Amino acid sequence: MARNPIRDEIAIVGLGSTGFYRDSGGRSAKALACDASIRAIRDAGFEPGDIDGIVGAAEPGGPNPNEMSAALGLPQVTHFSSPMPVAVFALVDAMNAIFSGSCSTVLLYFAYTRLPWNSRSAAEDPFRRHHTLGVMPAPESVNAAAAYAAWASRYIHEYDARREDFGRVALNARAGAARNPLAVMKTPLSMEGYLQARMIREPLCLLDMDIPVDGADAFVLTRTECAREKTRNPVVVHAATTGLVGTNDEDQLPSLRRHGQHVVVESLRAKSDLWLEDMDIFFPYDGFSIITLGWIENFGWCPPGGAGRFLEEHWDPEAGCVMIDGRIPLNPHGGSLSEGATRGSGHIREAVMQLRGDAGERQVAGARNALIGCGGFFFNSQGAILRRL
Amino acid sequence: MSEDVDDAALIERFPYVRIDHDSKHFYRGWLDERLLFNRCDACERFHHPPKPVCPSCWCASLTPTEVSGRGVIHLAMFLHQGPPAPGVDYAMAAHPVVAVELEEQEGLRFTSTVIGCPREAIRIGLPVELGWVERFGAPFPVFRPVEGS
Known about the structure:
The complex is a heterodimer of chains A (389) and B (149). Chain A contains 13 helices and 14 strands. Chain A is an alpha+beta fold. Chain A has a domain at 10-116 and 213-223: Thiolase/Chalcone synthase (Peroxisomal Thiolase, Chain A, domain 1, 3-Layer(aba) Sandwich), CATH 3.40.47. Chain A has a nine-stranded mixed sheet with strand order 3-2-4-7-1-8-14-13-9, with helices on both faces. In chain A, strands 10-11-12 form a three-stranded antiparallel sheet. Chain A has a two-stranded antiparallel ribbon with strand order 5-6. Chain A is globular. Chain B has two domains: 2-66, no CATH class; 71-145. Chain B has helices at 7-13, 24-31, and strands spanning 36-40, 46-47, 62-66, 71-79, 95-102, 109-112, 127-135, 138-145. Chain B has a five-stranded antiparallel sheet with strand order 6-5-4-7-8, with no helix packed on it. In chain B, strands 2-1-3 form a three-stranded antiparallel sheet, with helices on one face. Classes of the chains: A alpha+beta (389), B mainly beta (149). At the A-B interface, α5 and β5 of A face β4, β5 and β6 of B.
């Protein structure tokens, strides 16, 4: 067992979300972040003066923590930071700040805004056109997002994978989104529809990629001991980790069997009393469908290369989605593919909602434990286990 | 020769690349149509993209060393849309982008496109070699199939 003194010591006591939109109608990222933050602080039953830490993921176009503190009129904070995306970097920073005594209660926010280079309608907004990429890269690059299509080609080559294996990830997400009032993509999706979607970075098509949205999520975190004054059964972070291998330049990655996800899984397993058999819900990140296949395999639900078959075998035709062993759903909120590209905050929010018993028609009866694999293969692999005490 | 091109001029020759002090030798090599990878003077291992020290042994003495450019396609995707570039027309044909594992060292890869080859032939495992085309008036490294492969 690895050292994990923070185990169960930090509780998530407030949630707020704007929901996700293709176009938020002229609201700025800061407006969305304020909306979600106020909801989260009220949900926690706190006042502005109770918040002494503020952590905001450094999303492109999103507000800095100092701007947010000014907008919300927080009297003073003793910890503020803006970790890079995706979501668990900020979660871990907030947890550590509380556990170490840098502050006691953190507002954690994630604001997403469609950028002019990934949304045609965003490009028509003169304010959004101020955002620039800097140097325009050459097409001949497998940096960042393009790397997932490149490694998907390797996955298909090594495991003889079929397009349907990727398609089931998209179908599962869409089925979840249909049951989630916060989600953007609710139109029913069939395998035929998936197979007909246009290619973007072949072998990945439009529906293998998360959908750019406007919207925000916010959370309030505090010590479990304080949370217990308000509820006997707070939702706590049992374990959380981030993971990186040395050779993480996208095209130099050692292989599909050795990258950041493997470090995360080894670390999380060593820190946790709970593992796959204890889980009620599984959140494999889906910024690209290939990432989800990776998490399923690398957590050990099935052997390498077996995720497509695994999804087929655990498919619930009646619900139109995956139910592992007939009971464990995957990304029941619709994930980044269909709820919206939240870069992980949606997965964490849904985990908390499920563990509170607040997930409406998506509710997994009696859910106690949730497993989150967040981020991709290269420089943002991370994981967390949340539980209800 | 590229030694005569100062840093400011180098940036102007490659307006689509974010060049810095770690990568300037690599891009100067392009001007001479040479693919130069950092090689460690101590342990003799190559690495890419260019880093300030050898990731294998931390030696800071690195020599940009020409590689053959021969290798095998390791990753292969086809862009149906993407950043604009001269000679790239996504509407005409999906643009191939490949990461090639070079023969010099296991795991040492370089990413570019493939020319002179039908789309169907571009697949993981195909042996390729380096060629040079012109882009924005400067040499640009690409791959083409090894003859007879």
